[in-house]
Design a protein that fits this description.
This protein is an alpha+beta fold. The protein has a single domain, classed as Arc Repressor Mutant, subunit A, CATH 1.10.10.10. Helices cover 60% and strands 19% of the residues. It has a 3-stranded antiparallel sheet with strand order 3-5-4. Strand 4 and strand 5 form a beta hairpin. The radius of gyration is 19 Å and the shape is elongated.
């Protein structure tokens, strides 16, 4: 392969990596790292953790748990929905809209991967 072709391939790979969603696993130096930046954010981690032990939860229940605005919670929930980590069922109760959220199997796996990663970091830190 010509050096210029190799440079072009490397640049294409770097560009593809920079456009990859934040929640995908990244390979670095031959190792797979499972640090899911989508789960890492405080409110999203809170939503997933709460849903792991209390399903379902309504929009208002989640909002009260994390003391965030409607827009903030909605944006975080949407990102988790787009990733397939949570599901939202919308209905009406007494003529008022009601959104109930549940953690999906993929979301539970992502949460457990994140927790495993954090536990490994804690163990490594305590060994030093």
């Amino acid at each position: 392969m010509k050096p210029s072709a190799h440079k072009h391939e490397m640049a294409s790979a770097e560009l593809a990596a920079s456009k990859a969603p934040a929640h995908t696993a990244v390979r670095s130096a031959g190792e797979e790292r499972h640090f899911d930046r989508l789960v890492y954010e405080r409110v999203r981690l809170g939503i997933m953790s709460a849903l792991a032990v209390n399903e379902p939860l309504t929009f208002n229940e989640l909002k009260a748990l994390f003391d965030v605005s409607d827009g903030n919670l909605s944006a975080h929930a949407r990102k988790l929905e787009e990733a397939g980590y949570i599901e939202c069922a919308k209905s009406f109760a007494d003529r008022r809209p009601k959104s109930e959220y549940r953690l999906t199997a993929a979301g539970r796996q992502a949460l457990y991967r994140y927790l495993d990663h954090i536990e490994a970091v804690i163990k490594a830190t305590r060994r030093t």
